[in-house]
Amino acid sequence: MKGITNSFKAIKTAAKAGKAATDAQKAASLAGKTNLVGIGGQVLGSALGAATGPSKEYGGKYGGIT
Questions:
Q1: What's 31's DSSP letter?
Q2: What is the mean pLDDT of the segment spanning 54-66?
Q3: Number of H helices, E strands in the chain
Q4: What is the CA radius of gyration of the chain?
Q5: Residue 43 has pLDDT above 80, yes or no
Q6: Region 46-62: what's the mean pLDDT?
Q7: Residues 45/51, Cβ–Cβ less than 8 Å
Q8: In terms of pTM, does the model score above 0.85?
Q9: Averaged over 30-49, what is the pLDDT?
Q10: From residue 59, how far is each of 11, 16, 53, 56 by CA, in Å?
Q11: Between the CA of residue 21 and those of 10, 15, 29, 46, 57, what are the distances in Å?
């Protein structure tokens, strides 16, 4: 009887470890997708900056004062 109980405990432990590994894989996949979105935003920002020219917020008589 004790052997059967230990077998069920081992099965439960293995199932928990499998779920933890799956959760870690999902988190890594999400992190990779988030990183791609960030890179895409940087590329878009650079393209818009190149298309519109230099910033004019600090131009004018008092432009050098921050």
A1: H
A2: 71
A3: 1, 0
A4: 27
A5: yes
A6: 77
A7: no
A8: no
A9: 79
A10: 70, 61, 13, 5
A11: 17, 10, 12, 38, 50
